[in-house]
Amino acid sequence: MADRFTVPSVQSSAPADASTRERVLRRISEAGPITALTLGEDLGLTDTAIRRHIDGLLADGLIESRALPTSGRRRRGRPARGWVVSTQGHSVLSAEYDDLAGEVLRFLERTAGPGAVAAFAEQRVAELEARYVKELDEVGTDPVERARVLVDALARDGYAASLRPVTGGPSAGGFQLCQGHCPVQHVAAEFPEFCDAETEAFSRLLGVHVQRLATLAQGDHVCTTFIPVTAVTGTPSTHHPTEGSHS
Length: 247
Prior knowledge:
It is a single chain. The chain is an alpha+beta fold. The protein has two domains: 15-85, Arc Repressor Mutant, subunit A (Orthogonal Bundle), CATH 1.10.10.10; 113-228, no CATH class. Helix content is 49%, strand content 13%. The protein has eight helices and six strands. It has helices spanning 15-31, 36-43, 47-59, 87-112, 114-137, 143-156, 185-190, 193-206, and strands at 63-67, 81-85, 161-166, 174-179, 211-214, 223-228. The strands form two sheets. Strands 3-4-6-5 form a four-stranded antiparallel sheet, covered by helices on one side. A two-stranded antiparallel sheet has the order 1-2. Strand 3 and strand 4 (174-179) form a beta hairpin. Helix 2 (36-43) packs across helix 3 and helix 4 packs across helix 5. The chain is globular and about 55 Å long. The two termini are 17 Å apart. The relative contact order is 0.12.
């Protein structure tokens, strides 16, 4: 479970303060796990202001802390912590953006054609892909190990991801990547280009052709992607990411 820090509660109803709070939440969503120091630098806010907004977001259950990925020699003492958006926070962000995003995409489709929507979806997922590829490359080319790292990264970003082996039936010889949360679920229900772009990104990241079996956008209870591993000896056990894990 994510650790929760206890800091003094400070609340403000001022419109400017509310706008800054939204900026903080959005930045955490984009760059998490991110430290309070980096947040302040990115947004041009003082330590006091950042701590005040972190306090409010934490009290409302919109963010939580996670261990930061380590690089090089592990230092002694308590691991560094960063802030990420919680599942509840992702729901809030999704609700705020769904209507506006739908309007923008419909306008884009009318004025520039369906290809423009697909290009936008591909650009969005390319940014996610660029963030993950370095972590995956550290474990080599084995699609099983790459999938484990991908699942950890997705879970860290709030996708409620897990990896499940498939041991029988027509899909034998692989495993399923499951995602219990999708920040663009409602938009993707109208514009499946977002699901298609993500599926293609998974294929590139894992180095194998994957197949999307189910999506939250289509009304399924979880997004499911089949990953074949016929070139790999054995099948992996079920993998549920833990905080800060990179198996």
